[in-house]
From TrEMBL:
This is Spore coat protein A. One of its GO terms (molecular function) is oxidoreductase activity. Belongs to the multicopper oxidase family. It comes from Nocardia otitidiscaviarum. Signal peptide: none annotated. Keywords: Capsid protein, Virion.
Length: 517
């Protein structure tokens, strides 16, 4: 381990991380035994009634300035007291005072610059998930912004592991040279991402383009982002999260939860089991599973006559080639599914629940829709959505293997190694196609930064039903070998590859990859 990367007394050392993970291994293995009911972190307050809170829609952020070639935004990261559970105050870590943070709307090919001011009590890192972003704006975990006025304490505790330190604020510059897609931004602090995101640091960033404009998809009030998260609350209304060390000197959570923290309150756009009044017409929903570790199997109950309630039109990386009618959607952490639901297929007055078939009791329900009349016909979906070509695996120049494993000595690892900044696991050449073989022990939602990929096979068979289109996160089942085709285009530099179960990520299932010209 390099001294340079060690930060004692702040986020802890890699040695401590390995220690925590090793201690947790025996218990962890026990928790992962097949057939064991899911272990969740129970809330200490009475759960609120379901389907009472109105669905919040995150506000769209206005630029502070528009220039000829770029739009400029400002976001202040700060603690805000939110009323999430009616009658309780929750101190949340927010982007600009809300959870989710404000939505940023960009045009493909037009630059967006976001100045993030840090007024939180800790260093922060912002990552645009799904962004085709130059390395210095990608939110590498060692590129931190320390809160203004904290420079001294930072220096005093000897935090020497950072690659770049901004004081008070940092400008993140996104060229948006990518297709229309549902992206999201969230904190990526080294070893603390689970804690930071759980406390509220996540928001949407949407990219639009002309190909999408030409399709006449439901827009405006009929295009709604839905951020689904599970959380637990302490008796005073604060978020409950089982940090291994409340001072955050060591990474991750207590051994009981090392396989991921699951809450018992489902929030959509920050409200518990909300209700949305909708018209009897078509809606586009941008589903984002922003949960730390929970997977969902989403269905509408009752389904509309004839089934196929959820028509998938997009994946992590943007529009699919054609719409795919589905009865359900399985969503792992960080995955996005753009879907169209036609509420005109229901009788006005119907109440339709969005349910989670992988949950039970409170976690078996997500939100509900109350359909009001009159029925409004809307244009049918086009048969073809996008002509964006896929990757041809026959052109691959390299094959690489990545093993995602729990190791008794090191915790959650990739190719046997816990994360160490600066240790490079792969050096793909820009512009070339490669085959990556990902092999799992347990469930891992594996995410790759910079460019989306295409799923070729699962266990030598066809890809799964939810692998269609361009992906940046793949929901790996236990003991599975997945083949994907990756191609990084422009932007040389250091990027990340990691499990997006945020507790696995924090407890070191992450690696650096360096793109080279
Ligand atoms: Cu959504 Cu590297 O993360
Ligand atoms: Cu990402
Ligand atoms: Cu994992």
């Amino acid at each position: 381990m390099t001294r340079r990367m060690t930060r004692r007394g702040f986020l802890g050392t890699a040695a401590t991380v390995a220690g925590v993970a090793a201690a947790g291994w025996v218990g962890g293995a026990h928790l992962l035994a097949p057939g064991r009911p899911e272990l969740f972190l129970p809330s200490e307050l009475p759960l609120p009634p379901r389907f009472r809170s109105p669905l919040p829609i995150p506000r769209v952020l206005d630029p502070v300035r528009r220039a000829a070639d770029a739009d400029y935004y400002e976001i202040t990261q700060r603690i805000a007291e939110l009323e999430i559970i009616p009658g309780y105050r929750t101190p949340a870590w927010t982007y600009d005072g809300s959870f989710p943070g404000p939505t940023i709307v960009s045009r493909s090919g037009r630059r967006t610059v976001v100045r993030h001011r840090n007024e939180l009590p800790r260093p922060t890192v912002v990552h645009l998930h799904g962004g085709h972003t130059p390395a210095d704006s990608d939110g590498y975990p060692m590129d931190v912004t320390v809160p203004a006025g904290h420079e001294r304490s930072t220096a005093h505790s000897g935090h020497t592991g950072f690659r770049s330190v901004a004081h008070g604020h940092r400008d993140y510059s996104y060229p948006n040279s990518q297709r229309a897609a549902t992206l999201w931004y969230h904190d990526h602090g080294h070893g603390a991402t689970g804690y930071m995101v759980w406390h509220g640091l996540a928001g949407f960033h949407l990219v639009h383009d002309e190909e999408e404009d030409a399709l006449g998809l439901p827009g405006g009030e009929h295009d709604i982002p839905l951020m689904i998260t599970d959380r637990s609350f302490a008796v005073d209304g604060s978020f409950r999260y089982p940090l291994a060390d409340p001072q955050l000197h060591t990474h991750g959570v207590t051994e009981t939860y090392m396989n991921g923290v699951l809450g018992d309150v489902i929030l959509v756009n920050g409200a518990p089991w909300p209700v949305a009044r909708v018209e009897a017409t078509r809606y586009r929903f941008r589903l984002l599973n922003a949960s730390n570790a929970r997977r969902y199997r989403l269905e509408l109950d009752p389904p509309p006559p004839g089934g196929a309630a959820l028509v998938q039109i997009g994946s992590d990386g943007g529009l699919l080639a054609r719409p795919l009618p589905r009865d359900r959607i399985d969503a792992a952490p960080a995955e996005r599914f753009d879907i169209v639901v036609d509420f005109a297929r229901y009788r006005p007055g119907t109440r339709v629940r969005l349910v989670n078939r992988l949950g039970s009791g409170p976690t078996g329900e997500i939100m509900c829709f109350e359909i009001s009349g009159p029925v409004r016909d809307s244009p049918p979906l086009p048969v073809r959505l996008s002509s964006d070509p896929s990757l041809d695996p026959r052109r691959a120049v390299t094959t690489r293997d990545f093993h995602f494993q729990l190791r008794p000595d090191h915790g959650w690892t990739i190719n046997g190694r816990p994360y160490e900044a600066g240790q490079i696991l792969a050096r793909p050449r820009l512009g070339t196609t490669e085959i990556w073989r990902l092999v799992s022990d347990f469930r891992h939602p594996v995410h790759i930064h910079l460019d989306p990929f295409v799923v070729l096979a699962r266990n030598n068979r066809a890809p799964g039903p939810f692998d269609s289109g361009w992906k940046d996160t793949i929901d790996m089942n236990p003991a599975e070998a997945v083949e994907i085709a990756v191609r990084f285009t422009d932007h040389p530099g250091t990027y990340m590859l990691h499990c997006h179960n945020l507790e696995h990520e924090d407890m070191s299932m992450m690696a650096d990859l360096v793109t080279e010209e």
